[in-house]
Write a structure and sequence with these properties.
Layout lengths: L1 H14 L4 H15 L3 H12 L4 H28 L2 H20 L4 H15 L2 H12 L5 H26 L5 H21 L15 H5 L2 H17 L5 H8 L4 H26 L4 H18 L6 H18 L2 H9 L5 H29 L4 H28 L1
Helix pairs in contact: 2-8, 2-9, 3-4, 4-5, 4-6, 4-7, 4-17, 5-6, 5-7, 5-9, 7-17, 8-13, 8-16, 11-17, 11-18, 13-15, 14-15, 14-16, 14-18, 16-17
């Protein structure tokens, strides 16, 4: 009986007390990420299925990044102007349609246009979903709620990576259909089961993006996160190139990344509640620093096992950051501007996704011995900036 009681208490501490619409968003996000099979394999699809040269493939994939960059401010504005539910549902339905169109497009101009549109609509859910959580969940529970959402997304994506590789053997068209169907399911769930949470216009003053940009604490927070994103996103650019450049097979990179997925799924739910008792800014700074340390240690390894060990270090830092940025953004944002604030925060990740490959590949080409110490230093810089911002964030939270 004692073990059953303690197990129930464990579950309540991690999942109890959150409103039903949050769990709809949680389940829908998990289903949606289960179907995220096109993005990880888009380069392979363009070169093998459509026969595009690498230069053209790079152009098509860059258009996705440009679309993602545009998506954050646009979706943030729509979330505040039209509503969170309408933006999230519309983005998912538009993503489903765009996925199917891309799956049957053969011309290069069509692929370029399709990837630009996909970048815009596929990321529209981020500001809207973050605003929904901030609207629904009280401040003391937000780190836990955002952490759970982070965990659902990562678990779904981990399964999608395995299933996508297997399903691709039957042809890439099936990946587009799976992605489209799961997006449509997510959109329908949101529309039917999540109420509109945007504050009434009668109760809220008019707002503009200029109001967000005048918030110096928020702008500084976004810039610190951009520096962190430049470090973290090297996992998709500099890290695989460095490993294969040392003669390691691509399977070694896959195994190292499997360590990341496994640790996130196992460790992050355990740490979320425990970390909620500490100051969010300090926890986030510790996470940034640990990620920087993990990448700095990469300069000392050359084997697959060594790389896997460094991945384990920065994954623990990633687990520390889970859910914390969303909670800080919700603290800083007035209720009627939560969509725009979340869009500005998302912009740091979209900009990081565009800049990280340029930074990582240039460092690898010009100073291969310095790439990992430099990235480690950038991680510490982001951590220091977050510590300096902590007092202002705490003041805003108290107010």
């Amino acid at each position: 009986m004692t073990s059953v009681t303690s197990r129930a208490g464990f579950l309540r501490s991690r999942a109890g007390g959150l409103p039903r619409p949050f769990w709809v968003l949680f389940g829908g996000s998990f289903v949606n990420r289960l179907g995220t099979m096109v993005e990880p394999f888009i380069g392979v699809y363009l070169t093998q299925e459509r026969g595009l040269p690498l230069t053209t493939t790079g152009l098509v994939m860059t258009m996705f990044g440009v679309g993602s960059l545009l998506a954050q401010p646009v979706a943030g504005w729509l979330s505040d102007h039209l509503g969170r539910r309408a933006t999230l549902t519309g983005g998912m339905v538009a993503t489903a349609v765009t996925m199917l169109a891309l799956g049957y497009t053969t011309s290069v101009p069509g692929l370029v246009a399709g990837m630009l549109v996909l970048g815009i609509v596929v990321d529209a859910y981020r500001p809207a979903s973050q605003a929904i959580v901030a609207d629904l969940v009280p401040p003391e529970d937000r780190p836990r709620a955002f952490g759970l959402l982070f965990w659902a997304v990562n678990l779904g994506f981990a399964v999608a990576m395995v299933a996508g590789g297997w399903l691709a053997r039957s042809g890439f068209t099936v990946l587009f259909w799976v992605d489209a169907v799961t997006c449509l399911v997510f959109g329908v769930l949101v529309w039917r089961a999540i109420p509109e949470t945007r504050p009434s216009r009668d109760d809220a003053p008019p707002g503009r993006f200029a109001d967000v940009l005048r918030d110096r604490v928020m702008v500084a927070f976004v810039l610190a996160n951009l520096v962190y994103a430049l470090v973290y996103l090297q996992v998709h650019s500099a890290l695989p190139l460095a490993m294969t450049g040392q003669g390691l097979p691509t399977s070694a990179y896959g195994m190292a990344m499997a360590v990341n997925g496994l640790l996130i799924v196992v460790v992050q739910p355990v740490t979320t509640v425990w970390l909620a008792r500490f100051d969010p800014s300090r926890v986030l700074a510790a996470g940034f620093a640990l990620v920087g340390l993990g990448f700095a240690l990469t300069s000392l390894v050359s084997s697959g096992a060594g790389y896997a060990a460094t991945v384990a270090v920065w994954t623990l830092g990633e687990a520390l950051t889970a859910g914390i940025p969303g909670a800080i953004v919700a603290t800083l944002a007035p209720a009627h501007l939560r969509g725009r604030y979340s869009g500005l925060y998302g912009l740091s990740w979209s900009a990081g996704a565009l800049l990280a490959p340029l930074v990582g590949t240039r460092l690898l080409a010009d100073a291969p011995g310095l790439v990992w110490p430099v990235l480690g230093g950038l991680g510490l810089l982001a951590a220091g900036a977050q510590l300096l911002l902590g007092r202002a964030v705490r003041r805003r939270s108290a107010a």
